[in-house]
Design goal:
The structure is a single chain. The chain is mostly helical and about 425 residues long. Helix content is about 85%, strand content about 0%. The chain has 19 helices and no strands. Helix 6 crosses helix 18 and helix 9 packs antiparallel against helix 14. The radius of gyration is 44 Å and the shape is rod-shaped. The protein starts with a helix and ends with a helix.
Length: about 425
């Protein structure tokens, strides 16, 4: 820009020099014409120099009114720039259109292709090590305290309902019931478990008999005497029933269990009394000192286990995470439908964020311009438009000279006529 300034100054000085040279010949028609051209060029160059300088600073340091326009109005300029860019350039429609043009699936595929399993393992190990270093005992206690506060503030009934919905949609309830029934059936084959269950049955029969009248107790005693009501038979029948439920996928108990899960999911969102009881149970459980101590011990144990695992030559935690990341990478490379779905989901979320916070774009741009300060704004505009502004001075000198020559030519023509 210094070169352009020297050029503008050189053209102005050339016009002034031409005026000095032509001044002695001003009485001749050609000398007067050259002098008029030179004088008009000097006037035009000085006028444009004043105009260009007045945009950025006071000419010659004089506080002339309506000069140094940018420093005097830089805050309003920042707001107007932000409003123009945010409201007229980066409109919601334009941003949504540009986001829609992005092939997010292709970007994901290219990113996944550039990564290797070794890169994933290295990054996972480094990230896990950083997390372990940050997870001090104090930090672990703070995290547990924040988790408890979050659980206390967050309603648990909707979360449980959503979890049950996921369980039912994926068929996990049937798998859990199958595993539970098989586990109970296998446990009843152990003598110690059968003895424990028998004792529980005896205790239940005693309590039940104590609440009954004389005749029902008489009939129960007769059934025990005849061997109809025997705890071993009850345990055996229970064991056989569990085996039957485990073998038959269409057993009525299985269907009833599924109905109970569905009913519970609905009640957790519609039954106010059940929701209140669940919340009360949650708060009572979280307030129990044993639960707080258990969570603290669990955090300490997890931290100790994580540190020991990461210190090993081959970290199982890092390897497990890296293996899952590698599976995800391979899926992105081979499954075009998956890439399309993930890309569409990402673009939809980005569009939602942009549209939701579009009003802040103007504020963000205005704050960015405002952060430059008056000197920074002047320097920014001077750096990007200074060359053209200096050429305005050159054009002012040239155009002024041409205008002066034309006017003097008309003057000569009038005298000749």
């Amino acid at each position: 820009m210094r070169r352009q300034r020297r050029l503008a100054l050189g053209v102005l000085l050339a016009a002034a020099g031409l005026a000095v040279v032509a001044f002695p010949f001003r009485s001749t028609w050609w000398g007067g014409w050259i002098l008029a051209v030179a004088e008009a060029g000097v006037v035009g160059g000085l006028a444009d120099w004043f105009a260009v300088t007045a945009i950025f600073r006071h000419p010659l340091g004089l506080p002339i009114p309506h000069t140094a326009l940018i420093p005097a109005n830089w805050e309003g300029l920042a707001e107007r720039v932000g409003a123009m860019v945010g409201g007229r350039v980066l409109t919601p429609e334009y941003l949504a259109q540009e986001i829609g043009r992005i092939d997010a699936g292709d970007l994901l595929a290219r990113g996944a292709e550039r990564l290797s399993q070794a890169d994933l393992e290295t990054a996972t190990h480094a990230m896990a090590g950083w997390v372990a270093e940050q997870l001090t005992p104090t930090t672990a206690s703070e995290l547990v305290a924040r988790l408890r506060a979050l659980l206390a503030a967050q309603p648990v009934a909707p979360t449980l309902a959503a979890a049950l919905r996921i369980v039912r949609d994926n068929g996990w309830d049937r798998r859990v019931l199958q595993a539970l029934v098989l586990g109970l059936a296998d446990a009843l084959e152990r003598p110690d478990v059968r003895a424990t269950v028998s004792e529980v049955i005896d205790e239940l029969l005693v309590r039940y008999r104590a609440q009954m009248g004389v005749y029902p107790r008489l009939w129960i005693g007769l059934a025990e005497l005849l061997g109809v009501l025997d705890r071993e038979r009850i345990v055996g029948a229970l064991h056989s029933g569990l085996r039957e439920v485990a073998k038959n996928p269409d057993h009525p108990l299985r269907e009833r269990a599924g109905e109970i899960v569905a009913e519970l999911e609905t009640r957790l969102t519609t039954d106010a009394r059940l929701v209140a009881r669940v919340e009360a149970a949650k708060n009572e459980l979280l307030a129990t000192p044993a639960v707080a101590a258990l969570l603290d011990d669990l955090a300490v144990s997890l931290r100790r286990t994580l540190l020991a695992d990461l210190a090993a030559p081959r970290s199982e935690t890092a390897a497990w995470i890296a293996e899952r990341l590698e599976r995800a990478r391979q899926a992105l490379l081979t499954d075009a439908a998956l890439r399309t779905d993930i890309g569409d989901w990402l673009k939809a979320r980005v569009s939602e964020l942009v549209l939701r916070h579009h009003g802040r774009i103007a504020e963000f741009i205005a704050n960015g311009v405002r952060a430059l300060g008056p000197a920074g704004v002047v320097r920014l505009i001077d750096e990007h438009a200074g060359d053209d502004l200096q050429y305005i001075r050159v054009n002012g000198t040239v155009v002024g000279g041409l205008a002066g020559g034309a006017i003097y030519g008309v003057h000569l023509l009038v005298h000749l006529l």
